[in-house]
Amino acid sequence: MLIAQISDPHIRPRGRLYQGGVDSNAQLAAAVRQLNALSPAPDLVLLSGDVVDEGRAEEYAMAREILGGLHAPLVALPGNHDDRDAFRAAFSADGFLPAEGPLHLVVEDKGPVRVVGLDVTVPGAHHGMVDDAAASWLEATLAASPHRPTLVMMHHPPIESGIPYIDIYRCLGADRLAAVIARHPQVERIACGHIHRHMQMRFAGTLLVTAPSTATAIALRPEPGAEPASFLEPPALLLHHWRAGAGLITHFLPVGVFPGPWPFA
Does residue 158 register a pLDDT over 90? Predict the structure, then answer.
């Protein structure tokens, strides 16, 4: 099973630039083209939040237009830049979201790996939170299929990146989440976004990874008091590849057209 993960596209209304200088719409469209060209094709595409930049209906309409070009099925979770009601309206017809409340999701039918999406957004705030209700939902959901390999998707990672100006918007309730994950060894990966960088770290007995953004990269400045900044680094995505008997491996894939291929000796 091949699961692609894109994150933090920060889509803008048609003709508008992200942060005044980045064509985030064009960069998401390039990621869609790259995903469509993969061989083998992804069985599922995950979008781990911040689909749009300001939570506006015209942004979601633009996102749906671009994402409508995907050949593979898509599931998405909101991030802190998304508006929960507008997000639900934009994706409700796809059938993977609940009708009310937090936008948790479960995907059972795309292959051997089960995907569980945990909505940790806090409406009106930029940090995330795993509260008692979210932890209880996740506990019950994981307990329902204890022997099936599982990927848990969130927007905010429940760790500190070491970059101070993004960590102030981290996911709170990490200990609560860790207690749940540690009871369920079938969780092969926790896949997050939010940081606009690729990171990996052990967490609660499994591996946590963050996907890069298709828009901008948050500057890697892990010193106290660092000045916040972003850069227009090459957009990228992750590919989570499950193979029977081998497990789940995660690949980092830049988006773009690059020189090559060269002969391999």
Answer: yes
